[in-house]
Amino acid sequence: MDTYDVVILGAGAAAKLIWGSVGDRSVAVVEWARVGGECPFVACVPSKAMLRSARVWQTAADPQWAGLFSGRVPGADAYQEAVRRRERIVHGRDDSTNASALAKTGATLLRGDGRVVRPGVVEVDGTEIGYRDLVLNTGSEPVWPQLPGLSAVPVWTSDQAMSTSDHPRSAVVLGGGPVGCELAFLFATFGTAVTMVQRNRRLIPREEPEASTALAEVLTGQGVRLHTATQATRAEPHGTGARLLLDTGERVEADVVVLATGRRPRSAGLELERLGIDLDPRGAVTVDERCRALGADHVWAVGDVTAVAPFTHTAHYQGRIVAANLRGRTVTADYRAVPHAVYVDPVLVSVGHTVASARAAGIEPLTTRTSMSQAVRSATEGESTGWLMLLADPDTRTVIGATALGGHAEEWISEVSLAIRAGVPVDVAADVVHPFPTFSEILEIPLNELAAR
């Protein structure tokens, strides 16, 4: 039996931060699908490529740019051009480049499904291999709602939506979280008649109420029909498409149902109970501050399988944490300042506390709000829509949260992340000089207001 110092189950986002970063320790990576995971092939990268194409195409119809463009192709044709660009960017979902990069680090790639046999041993499609440290990086999978009749109608998961070239004339998106909002925005921009069904009364309910309202306005502005505080009760075939019955008594017909009802950790079948690991009710592996799996020695977990802030950038962060610990350092994770983003247009981002979460933590936050139009860059870019909201702790006088719409905030929100993570005093943060003209200058207005309180 071959034995490795480190065996990683899953070659997703976090794994590449580990397989070439553990010194001279031998590494084997077990992957049943693609090296690199879902993000570069069917999730983050293709969806953001499609959304960028949608924004560029939409710009051609904006009256303020009319004199700069020669014309605008129909939505269905533009969609196919966007698909071709997407496929170039994801290399046709060929992971050979990633596999070669893995091999160059000296790690061994084992194609297949892995499961635990006993402490120190995993099995990959019938072949046992030994390990000294095991890293669980198996990601997550889409949740299919318990909706009667759903299996009898055309359904796309978010992965399938970002793999197909089909351009539906109509679609029903189930779920109003970040993924559902991005898919609804994307298809609506290219002319699909989109209906969104969200069981909560708000979209992205964990964010500020103002963010939920703004996102609803963005989507309805693209023609999306929103049904909030609503659930589908049954699905049935309708021609070649689907009909959904809602608990409001309404019926919605569409070519396809797009599922955005959440994801669950991919832990079933790993036989983790053989290591003494108890999964939480979601199927997630509980980890400590060093990303060690609770209940077992020499077992680590990273990425979506932990259900801790399930974003690709969190997986990267946890991968760095585990790599450092495997090299013999003692490094701990701090999730207070992990940013969230919804890549509609304008983009919505947040980091740290909301007002509600701050109050739940015993903090009555200082808040201030500034319109993105206050930044001169908004005039030069022709993008004045949006706002920034900052929260500060009145006792420590540090920034503890932010939510922003527009102003390319996804590119500068990390400045706020750093302030939260490092506990930077508001007075110091307000003293930062930003280049002119940039959207990041917008931070100066609310920071100075907070510093003056």
Q: How would you describe what is shown here?
A:
There is one protein chain. The strands form 5 sheets. Strands 1, 2, 3, 4, 5, 6 and 17 form a 7-stranded mixed beta sheet that branches. A 5-stranded parallel beta sheet has the order 8-15-9-10-11. Strands 18-19-22-21-20 form a 5-stranded antiparallel beta sheet, sandwiched between helices. With 453 residues, it is of the alpha/beta class. The model has no long low-confidence stretch (mean pLDDT 93). It has helices spanning 39-42, 44-59, 75-89, 96-104, 158-161, 178-189, 209-221, 312-326, 355-360, 376-381, 409-422, 426-430, 444-451, and strands at 2-9, 27-31, 108-111, 114-118, 121-124, 127-136, 140-142, 155-156, 170-174, 193-197, 225-227, 232-238, 241-246, 251-254, 256-259, 263-265, 299-301, 340-342, 348-352, 366-371, 387-393, 398-405. The chain has 3 domains: 2-37 and 95-141 and 264-326, FAD/NAD(P)-binding domain (3-Layer(bba) Sandwich), CATH 3.50.50.60; 150-261, FAD/NAD(P)-binding domain (3-Layer(bba) Sandwich); 346-451, 2-Layer Sandwich (Enolase-like, domain 1). Helix 2 packs antiparallel against helix 3 (75-89). The chain has 13 helices and 22 strands. The N and C termini lie far apart (66 Å).
